[in-house]
Amino acid sequence: MVTLTVKNQIVKIEAGELVSYKVEGHEYIHQKGSPGWRSSDTEMFPVIGPTNEANFRVITPKGEAIQDQHGLLREMEYHNTSQTNNKAIFTKSYNKGTLVKNAKHPSKSTEEYVSWPYDFIFEKRYELLENGLQISFKVSGEPGMPFMLGYHPAFKLHTKNASIVTPERTISLQEVLDVGHRALPVLNCNAITLRDGGELTIRTEGFGNFMLWTEVANMLCIEPISFYPYTVGQTQLHSGFQSLEEDDKYFSVFITPTN
């Protein structure tokens, strides 16, 4: 367990996963074992969305890749490469063509292994600041590699009337529940505020969109995404790819609490 502290803020990270963010004792992160989801955060890479109706295949410039829902990164282990009192860096490295065990097999998938035809290094950086938590991502790899990126944190809800405020509208928790597993899209948006007693603002750089998901009233996933996958059919997921060029790609999420 990695613990970061700045004044009245405490962050706990387990194997690269954000498992706790407390400010003056108030917990903002969904706790494992509580109803809703078995995790507290994860990443969706290099694909966002389901692939089962496409026979778990996604088109790339190097041919079809075997991918399950939300990609293969979540099946890999993070390595802690750097740590201070208020910063920690975790990385995952992948060699093209390596078979990765698929945790969804056999109960939810026919594919025992998933793979990707490109090398990449994925870095996740936590930095606890005076006014909140910054989580940054760096994607490095082969020039021309296609990818999508989504960050999938789950926030603990403390009230029965939580709402989500965007620049365009206010969304009730019931609206998110009604959408179900597809998740509710908030497109062309870089900032969202969760009102749940106090306020928690999530600002992003590089993503451009959000989707909101929950199936219970005690947690809410507010997910920055580079592409909302349900705008196309599963066989057309490749239309949502962006391409890695010579330079690395950077994405950031800033979580700022106000009570």
UniProtKB/TrEMBL annotation:
<dbReference type="InterPro" id="IPR008183">
    <property type="entry name" value="Aldose_1/G6P_1-epimerase"/>
</dbReference>
<dbReference type="InterPro" id="IPR011013">
    <property type="entry name" value="Gal_mutarotase_sf_dom"/>
</dbReference>
<keyword id="KW-0106">Calcium</keyword>
<comment type="subunit">
    <text>Monomer.</text>
</comment>
<dbReference type="GO" id="GO:0016853">
    <property type="term" value="F:isomerase activity"/>
</dbReference>
<dbReference type="GO" id="GO:0005975">
    <property type="term" value="P:carbohydrate metabolic process"/>
</dbReference>
<dbReference type="GO" id="GO:0030246">
    <property type="term" value="F:carbohydrate binding"/>
</dbReference>
<dbReference type="Pfam" id="PF01263">
    <property type="entry name" value="Aldose_epim"/>
</dbReference>
<dbReference type="InterPro" id="IPR014718">
    <property type="entry name" value="GH-type_carb-bd"/>
</dbReference>
<protein>
    <submittedName>
        <fullName>Aldose 1-epimerase</fullName>
    </submittedName>
</protein>
